[in-house]
Amino acid sequence: MGTSLQPIDLMSPGRNLDAYVQGIGPIPVLTVEEERELSERLYYQNDLEAARQLVMSHLRFVVHIARSYSGYGLSQADLIQEGNVGLMKAVKRFDPTVGVRLVSFAVHWIKAEMHEFILRNWRIVKVATTKAQRKMFFNLRSSKKRLAWFTNDEVNAVAEDLGVEPKVVREMERRLSAQDMAFDQGTDDDEDEAYKAPAYFLEDKRNDPSRLLEDKQWEEDSNRRLQVAMDSLDDRSRNILVQRWLSEEKSTLHELAAEYQVSAERIRQLEKNAMKKVRGFLEA
């Protein structure tokens, strides 16, 4: 078929994006007949070599789509990598009997993977979580022609185009305009500006008298329950728990087995039963 392919890392373009683009450039575009033949070999015979050739011949298309998302401030190499994953998913699911070109089918899968990557990494806090919000995110980004806020007329026009209420457009515009902020003061931050960090607005309850009293009472009650539980055990079971869990130098099952002249499995059973009984006292 005249498709002499060279080995290229499909999953990761690597740091040298220009070299990657140059590397996939010579790969020929498949004709309709070549694409049909390869697709049928994959569809009917599960021919992995055919799948590889289909993927390789469409790598330049993934690069083309990735460039259209350059305005999100994310790595082009990462976008291409995610798009290549989508391309491979499309090739795996492509049905040649439908009568469409692979590129028309694959565009959905390629963009879906890129969209997922953008939504995961564009902000620390997810800006879009529901399906409707995800659709709104990309449509609103493409509809916004200037940095200023939408006017009422623009909001109404976008809402009508997308089939949503104007308040939904306003909410997503607000999310898009928000900025991530570090929770704590950064090491290089000006001390005069440190008070603006969100951490400074939280109430410190560590020394709250009521909380300290509550913690003390809970600790005393837990210790009392533990002591009652330990007293309820027979001497052997109590000693096993002490040696296994409460001593600084904890004993092994085999050491206790030798001490009581029983098997290590018997010690394990006694330990398990004792722990179950103690847990019952603590949870009562």
Question: What are the salient characteristics of this protein?
Answer:
13 helices; flat; 0% strand; 284 residues; mainly alpha; single chain
Account of the 3D structure:
- The protein is mainly alpha-helical.
- Helices cover 62% and strands 0% of the residues.
- It contains 13 helices and no strands.
- It has helices at residues 17-24, 32-45, 48-56, 59-67, 76-93, 102-121, 131-143, 152-162, 166-177, 209-231, 235-246, 253-260, 264-283.
- The radius of gyration is 32 Å and the shape is flat.
Please identify the oligomeric state.
single chain
**Rg value:** 32 Å
Distance between the termini: 76 Å
Order of helix and strand elements from N to C terminus: HHHHHHHHHHHHH
Number of E-type strands: 0
Structural class by sheet pairing and helices: mainly alpha
**Low-confidence regions:** 1-8
% residues in beta strands: under 5%
- Helix content percent band: 55-70%
The helix tally amounts to 13
Largest sheet: none
Average pLDDT level: 80
Tell me, what's the shape? flat
List the helices and strands and how they pair.
Blueprint (H helix, E strand, L loop, with lengths): L16 H8 L7 H14 L2 H9 L2 H9 L8 H18 L8 H20 L9 H13 L8 H11 L3 H12 L31 H23 L3 H12 L6 H8 L3 H20 L1
Helix pairs in contact: 2-3, 4-5, 4-6, 5-6, 7-9, 8-9, 10-13, 11-13, 12-13
Can I get a quick summary?
The chain is an all-alpha fold and 284 residues long. The protein contains 13 helices and no strands.
